[in-house]
């Protein structure tokens, strides 16, 4: 059952990433999953449930990218400033290469303004990313590490969206790294 749910989440995300939210229908998800019409109805009987499946898959893909790019940080108790900057820059680059994922997630973020279930999914996942970031800013902002981490996550998300949805070319790695150093409050970088 979990495999089927994931399959439909991936298919829904693919539909949104290639055609936008207007393309998301039960039929289009079944087709993208390579299954007969009506197959997704058991797992997602409403359009809102299709959107929730797609958003779940979007965050699972983002977590996979985060685990891969932040792996070196996870292997140490006291990461250096350079390691934090390099891993964060790698995350921005990896996410910026995932234009379909970022575009679909952005569409779902907009939709979450009008859907309490999606909004709660966004909040829950944002909280997880903030909690992951908080240890790296604790020494820089000991009075408010959670709020500082929240701001960093928002600014990094904005940078990814800018590179993916707006810019015709991505910023050079050194520019991204310098911006991330400023976002984190690190001097130099």
Automatic annotation (TrEMBL):
Cross-referenced InterPro entries: Homeodomain-like_sf (IPR009057), Tet_transcr_reg_TetR-rel_C_sf (IPR036271), TetR_C_31 (IPR041583)
Protein origin, superkingdom: Bacteria
Residue ranges annotated for the Tetracyclin repressor-like C-terminal group domain, each copy included: 80-184
Protein name: Tetracyclin repressor-like C-terminal group 31 domain-containing protein
Organism: Gordonia hankookensis
């Amino acid at each position: 059952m979990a495999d089927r749910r994931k399959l439909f989440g991936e298919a829904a995300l693919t539909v949104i990433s290639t055609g936008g939210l207007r393309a998301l229908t039960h039929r289009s998800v079944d087709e993208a999953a390579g299954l007969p019409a009506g197959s997704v109805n058991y797992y997602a009987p409403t359009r809102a449930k299709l959107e929730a499946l797609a958003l779940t898959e979007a965050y699972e893909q983002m977590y996979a990218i985060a685990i891969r790019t932040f792996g070196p940080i996870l292997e140490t108790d006291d990461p250096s400033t350079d390691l934090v900057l390099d891993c964060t820059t790698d995350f921005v680059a990896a996410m910026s290469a995932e234009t379909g994922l970022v575009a679909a997630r952005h569409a779902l973020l907009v939709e979450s303004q009008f859907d309490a279930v999606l909004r709660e999914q966004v909040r829950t996942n944002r909280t997880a990313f903030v909690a992951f970031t908080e240890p790296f800013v604790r020494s820089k902002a000991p009075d408010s590490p959670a709020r500082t981490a929240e701001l960093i996550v928002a600014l990094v998300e904005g940078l990814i969206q800018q590179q993916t949805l707006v810019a015709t070319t991505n910023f050079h790695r050194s520019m991204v790294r310098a911006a991330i150093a400023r976002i984190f409050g690190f001097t130099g970088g």
